[in-house]
Design brief:
mainly beta; Maltoporin, Chain A; globular
């Protein structure tokens, strides 16, 4: 555990002590609580008033949506702050389990060890936003500084520009207000869990405010004892002119996170014998995941690490001229770092069997040093006007961004470590380079790995490649009220997207990197060993058309059509890469066209019970085209295609003043409708890919979640959550089984428990038991190398104070 543990414990102690002192007047009855006695909304309520006496927005934050949520012709899920707090979420992945239909992909190879959400079957790691601006860089995001999270389903390029077409996620940060409050939370739990947060808002005169959020946390991952973490974060937001026509807000966000990275357990395919092996074939599991205890950890404590660092500065200025026009400008500068060495248990390249029957494997590594610098600016004008009897609510804007993405790998050359026994029988991979050793690798038992193995070696960071992305977007969105019951929603956006880069051409041996000299291009000033990648530019225009019929003021029925474009440099779901070319129709270095996504959606929304409860339903059909595939021997074309059809249901709010619910259900029928052909033999014979017609990776057919609470007694609230996901394929590769027998994560159900007890009007004890039944399950697999094990049971007790 890091030296930050001492500072963290001090923060927890200070949080508790300060909160006790500041809350004491309430115990003596000297001061009225912030939430009045007759208010039914409190820390366990999803209605209209939060714990600070403020109205809960339950609306998208951005003015781009130009209409209330009930009148937006597409599926949108808003996860409020109450759910963040009640579920004891500490990461974006934790929180989004409350939005069915979103899964997270596993990190591997070119995919960073970071948040990789999949929405409607499409990798959406590049579609995460903070306060409406794209949040670049590989990260594992925290939630301590969030007021709400908005999930927009389906192609949303008119709002977000380039993207995967599955949808986007916007994180709404806590912002300064004009009333004074401080919320303190100090929690402890099993598996070494410690977490403390402070959220304090201080008015500075009648129109200014300062809000400060602090977080410190540490612990182990339940059921994965070798996997620990410690992190701390700070959010500062200063606002002036709040509540007036002209306002400015300056914000700074910082996060430092250190943890032991975890690539889970290997797949069975590593124990499939090679053609020359004499080792016996081990029984195959149905899912393809190796049958080992779920607490098995293949990493090395002495070597592996994962560091995330984020620093973000944001300045927002807004001036309201009149009802017709408000001008807003938002500028952001951010630096992120994703830095890790992680053991990939399924990529060691060698598995052997000893004379005593034990299996041994070489530990493989994945590494990345990836700092990203982003400068972005969004300027828009929004408001309302009428043309005769027709009313318009519009937003017109320009978005500019520049991202600098550096990337390097580490050499991890072992000089002393755990070695294999002598006399191994080859099962898979290349035999050891020396008797009883694995040369530049490291060795552990397949069925009894030891994370405490000693390790010494050479770790050098290799030469750095880089790419620069420059993007311009111009958009117009208009919600046109044709009649009292009929609304037409139109949107169009044009984007220009350019990528250029410099690649390092290097090799490494015995932990030493060597640049491979290149002949510089004419006029080039690059050093030998670095190759310039020419700038590639794409232009694309996307649309949204939606028609809304309103049976009542608080309900709607809609139909919509929307599109999205995915430049080839981000089509694989990784961060921006240089290049974007391929061999098309036998011609090399052809600049590829963006992949196109379109979606048709029909849905209904209703706010019932005095606007306390929101209901939604939608059916959709999404098609993504233009992937580069092999269509005949040596001929590639952009003809790959996938389809996802589905149904989504959602519920959020209060059924009664005492009973809250939040959750939904998603059904997805996905299919790889046109895959690359298989070419084999001489002369070449073309056959249909066995994956064609199969479901997509990370796209479970059924998923559901429901988190509910009920105020059983005036001071006691109980509840919990149920989360279900059907089996989910891990990749589009055939693996050893091929076709329908691809590796998958089996279906799983998790149950969480929740209870709060009000000690005073300002002090509450909160108990969360996550994974109450200690269910063992695989949360995801990449289908090729490894499967990630979900966390086991954990109990957390927190003292929450507000004053």
């Amino acid at each position: 555990m890091s030296d930050r543990s001492t500072a963290l414990k001090a923060l927890l102690f200070a949080s508790t002590a300060a909160g006790m002192l500041c809350a004491s007047p309430a115990l003596a009855g000297d001061e009225a609580p912030i939430v009045t006695a007759d208010a039914t909304q409190d820390a366990t309520n999803l209605g209209t008033i939060d714990v600070n006496g403020q109205r809960v927005k339950r609306e998208p934050e951005s003015s781009k949506y130009v209409a209330p949520l009930v009148d937006i012709p597409r599926a949108v899920t808003i996860i409020p702050q109450a759910i963040i707090e009640q579920t004891a979420a500490s990461s974006l992945q934790d929180l989004l389990s409350n939005s069915p239909g979103i899964t997270f992909g596993a990190g591997e190879g070119g995919q960073p060890l970071a948040d990789r959400p999949f929405i409607r079957g499409q990798s959406s790691g590049n579609n995460v936003f903070v306060d409406g601006i794209r949040d670049t860089g590989g990260q594992q995001r925290e939630v301590f500084n969030l007021e709400q999270v908005e999930v927009i389903k389906g192609p949303d390029a008119v709002y977000s520009g380039r993207g995967s077409g599955g949808g986007s996620i916007n994180l709404g940060s806590k912002s300064p207000r004009l009333n004074a409050f401080t919320n303190v939370s100090a929690g402890a739990g099993t598996d070494g869990y410690l977490r403390g947060t402070i959220d304090s808002n201080m008015p500075l005169g009648e129109t200014a405010g300062l809000r400060i959020n602090l977080m410190g946390a540490q612990g182990d991952v339940p059921g994965r004892d070798a996997v620990d973490y410690d992190k701390w974060g700070l959010g500062v937001s200063l606002g002036a002119g709040l509540g007036t026509p002209s306002s400015m807000v300056f914000s700074y966000y910082h996060l430092t996170s250190n943890q032991m990275p975890d690539y889970g357990i290997p797949l069975f395919t590593k124990l499939v014998p090679s053609a020359t092996s004499t080792a016996p074939v081990r029984p195959r599991t149905d899912s393809g995941v190796l049958d080992v205890p779920y607490d098995s950890f293949y990493g090395l404590k002495a070597r592996d690490y994962l560091t995330n660092e984020v620093d973000t500065f944001t300045f927002k200025a807004e001036h309201r001229l009149n009802d017709f026009a408000t001008i807003r400008n938002v500028s952001r500068f951010s630096n992120t770092l994703n830095d890790y060495i992680v053991t990939n248990p399924g990529d060691g390249g060698y598995v052997g069997r000893a004379a005593d029957g034990t299996y041994w494997m070489k530990r493989g590594t994945k590494t990345r040093w990836n700092p990203v610098t982003t400068l972005a600016n969004v300027t828009d004008v929004f408001g309302q006007f009428s043309t005769g009897s027709i009313k318009h609510s519009y937003d017109v804007g320009v978005e500019l961004s520049r991202e600098r993405n550096k990337n390097a790998a580490y050499s991890t050359y072992t000089t002393s470590g755990s070695t294999c026994p002598t006399g191994l029988t080859t099962v898979n991979g290349t035999p050891p380079t020396a008797t009883g050793a694995l040369g530049a690798g490291d060795c552990t038992q397949v069925f009894n790995p030891n994370p405490d193995d000693a390790w010494t070696g050479v770790i050098n960071r290799g030469p750095t490649s880089s790419n620069t992305t420059e993007a311009i977007g111009v958009y117009v969105n208009d919600s046109i009220t044709l009649t009292e019951r009929l609304i037409l929603n139109l949107g169009v956006r044009w984007d220009q997207y350019s990528v250029s880069g410099v690649n390092a051409n290097a090799t490494q041996s015995a932990g030493v990197w060597t640049l491979n000299p290149q002949i510089p291009a004419p006029g080039s000033t690059l050093l030998p060993g670095y190759v310039a990648v020419p700038e590639r530019t794409w232009e694309f225009t996307n649309y949204q058309v939606g028609l809304v019929f309103k049976p009542t003021a608080n309900s709607s029925v809609y139909a919509s059509w929307s599109t999205s474009s995915t430049p080839p440099t981000i089509s694989a779901g990784d961060q921006n890469a240089s290049g974007g070319t391929g061999t098309v129709n036998g011609v090399a270095n052809v600049v590829l066209e963006p992949e196109d996504t379109e979606s048709f959606e029909i849905g209904a929304k209703a706010n019932v019970f005095d606007d306390r409860l929101a209901l939604s339903a939608a059916v959709f059909h999404l098609t993504r085209k233009n992937a580069l595939i092999l269509v005949e021997p040596n001929i590639f074309r952009q003809e790959g295609e996938v389809e996802v059809k589905g149904l989504e249901l959602g519920v959020s709010g209060n059924i009664t003043p005492k009973w809250t619910v939040f959750g939904g259900y998603t059904y997805m029928d996905s299919e790889l409708t046109k895959a690359a052909v298989i070419v084999s033999g001489t002369p070449p014979v073309v056959s249909v890919n066995p994956l064609q017609g199969q479901p997509l990776a990370n796209t479970p057919k059924n998923s559901a979640s429901l988190f509910t609470t009920y105020r059983l007694l005036p001071k006691l609230t109980v509840g919990g959550g149920v989360y279900y996901t059907s089996k989910s394929l891990g990749g589009n590769q055939g693996g050893a089984g091929g076709g329908a027998n691809r590796v998958y994560a089996p279906e799983w159900t998790r149950v969480d428990a929740f209870a709060t007890y009000d000690l005073t009007d300002r002090a509450t004890l909160q108990l969360n038991v996550k994974n109450l039944t200690d269910e063992e399950y695989i949360i995801r697999t990449n289908g090729v190398h490894h499967a990630d094990v979900a966390a086991g049971r954990q109990a957390i007790l927190a003292l929450n104070l507000r004053f």
